[in-house]
Design a protein that fits this description.
Elements: H1 8-18, H2 32-48, H3 52-71, H4 75-94, H5 98-133, H6 148-163, H7 173-181, H8 183-186, H9 194-203, H10 209-242, H11 249-280, H12 298-304, H13 307-318, H14 328-346, H15 350-373, H16 380-402, H17 406-418, H18 424-431, H19 433-446, H20 450-462, H21 465-482
Helix pairs in contact: 2-3, 3-7, 4-5, 4-6, 4-7, 5-6, 10-11, 10-19, 10-20, 10-21, 11-16, 11-17, 13-14, 14-15, 15-16, 16-17, 18-19
């Protein structure tokens, strides 16, 4: 093509289209367009940092544009939600009557859950009602706004904390909109608490060198997890889950273990990038994953997996239900209900409810067995056995999380236990050599002691800029070598 044949109008139109919402290609942290825009965003952000008001407005504008590119015109609903929250929070704060405060809190929660319920659960409940009455229901054409579950939980925790006098409402609506729309955590978490985040906004501190380089390191790790490992191993995992009837027990087991690692890399990789971006901007979002597959029981797993969600469920659901304060049986029931609701939060389908319920059962069984477990001595065998039992329980429950339906889930698990032959492992390794190498490397990295990981991050932060550049170029080259033709969406975008 000759440059003289290219019309200026076409160039302008194509550039303009980059800034319009396209439902087929929502903006992701792993997309080139995001990083191009973030590189343009950063120097302006730094220049405006000294003026909190200007910085706040600029970040809000960028965050809303980011959400528009991710979810279209639903960014207007986010603005409306933030305004309603802010007005109700001040009404709660100024109301003297306790019952009036309580009524306002529940009004806000009702509004938030009603919006979430319509977009996420309307068709689910109507489908089930239709099945009971044997009607002819046609599902509504409802588009789920990206990240609605995450910012809804942030909205609810803010209102509840104002009601409990844990925090004071923000003086400015823009401060609250900044908190709710903060783009690193907007579409897939972590779920940020107002009492942790808003004091940072008020102080408006700039990032020091350790935060900047530490943030860049987390971004690199996140890209490796998501764009390199998760997207690559997903290619095989998808084959197993899309057509489970075609594969043997060994192949099915590898798919189960593969998805177990894929969902960890996908979600923790996104969280690493989000936390890293926030650090570069001078904000801390906290830790969201802490090597969860090192856990030796389910209770420990949920202290390490998706920490922002599990702590939210604990503080705003489990404890208000009574926690462990109302007897043993009630503790088990509260655990079960919390995980059941946590499962439904993940998706509007019975498979998610079952997934959450079984985690609730597992937690109850673990608590019931504690008097016996504490008497068993800790040695290499018991440590390994408890880890293996926990890992297998979590992994096989991920099957219900990923498979299309219960039928496929049962078929995959059945294949593992009825069509399993050890002699197939060498054949599998020969056929999927790179996949196996990635899995082995991933498992090794997951079990590296935390102090080693911290030391490696410190060495990177203190290294010469040429070393940092070489590391970055190597990561980009690896991603280019292994990446798919299209950027794969994050698994948790659907939640």
């Amino acid at each position: 093509m000759e440059w003289s044949n290219i019309e200026p109008e076409t160039v302008v139109r194509n550039i303009g289209n980059l800034f319009l919402y396209d439902g087929k290609t929502p903006m992701l942290f792993s997309s080139g367009l995001f990083w191009f825009l973030f590189i343009l965003f950063l120097p302006v952000y730094v220049a405006l940092k000294k003026s909190k008001a200007k910085m706040t407005l600029f970040v809000i504008a960028f965050s809303l544009f980011f959400y528009y590119k991710s979810s279209g015109w639903f960014f207007l609903m986010l603005i409306g939600t933030s305004l309603a929250d802010w007005l109700i929070s001040w009404a709660i704060f100024k109301t003297k009557d306790r019952r009036g405060k309580l009524a306002l809190m529940w009004l806000s929660i009702f509004l938030s859950l009603s919006i979430l319920g319509y977009f996420k659960y309307a068709n689910f409940f109507l489908w089930n009602w239709n099945a009971m009455v044997e009607g002819n229901f046609q599902p509504f054409e409802i588009i789920l706004p990206v990240g609605i579950s995450f910012y809804t939980f942030q909205s609810i925790s803010y209102i509840v904390d104002v009601y409990k006098r844990k925090i004071v409402p923000t003086k400015s609506w823009f401060d609250y909109l900044f908190f709710l729309s903060f783009f690193p955590a907007l579409v897939a978490g972590p779920i940020v608490r107002a009492d942790y985040f808003l004091p940072q906004l008020r102080k408006n501190l700039s990032a020091d060198s350790s935060m900047i380089w530490g943030g860049l390191w987390l971004i690199i790790i996140g890209i490796i997890k998501k764009a390199l490992i998760a997207d690559y191993i997903a290619q095989y995992n998808d084959l197993i889950f899309n057509s489970p009837e075609l594969y043997t027990g060994v192949q099915a087991l590898m798919g189960v273990v593969g998805y177990t690692m894929q969902i960890y890399c996908d979600f923790s990789g996104y969280s690493d990038m989000a936390i890293g971006l926030a650090l570069i901007m001078g904000f801390r979002l906290g830790t969201n994953f802490d090597s969860p597959y090192q856990s030796r029981n389910l209770s420990e797993f949920w202290r390490r997996w998706h920490i922002s969600l599990s702590s939210w469920l604990r503080d705003y659901l489990y404890i208000p239900l009574g926690g462990n304060r109302k007897g043993t049986i009630r503790t088990y029931v509260n655990n079960f209900l919390t995980m059941l609701i946590g499962g439904l939060w993940h998706g509007a389908a019975w498979k998610f409810v079952f997934w959450g319920a079984m985690h609730g059962v597992g937690l109850a069984v673990h608590k019931a067995c504690k008097p016996i477990l504490v008497k068993i001595p800790d040695n290499a065998f018991t440590i390994f056995f408890s880890w293996l039992l926990t890992f297998l329980y979590v992994s096989f429950l991920w099957v219900f999380f990923r498979a299309a339906d219960f039928k496929d889930s049962i078929l995959i698990i059945k294949n593992v236990f009825t069509d399993f032959h050890l002699w197939q492992f060498p054949q599998f390794f020969q056929a999927r050599t790179m996949w196996c190498i990635m899995m082995i490397a991933l498992i090794f990295m997951h079990f590296v002691p935390q102090q080693w990981a911290d030391k490696l991050q410190l060495q990177y932060s203190q290294a010469h800029w040429m070393v940092k550049l070489v590391v970055f170029v190597l990561v980009v080259q690896l991603v280019v070598e292994f990446m798919l033709a299209e950027v794969q969406p994050f698994i948790y975008f659907q939640f």
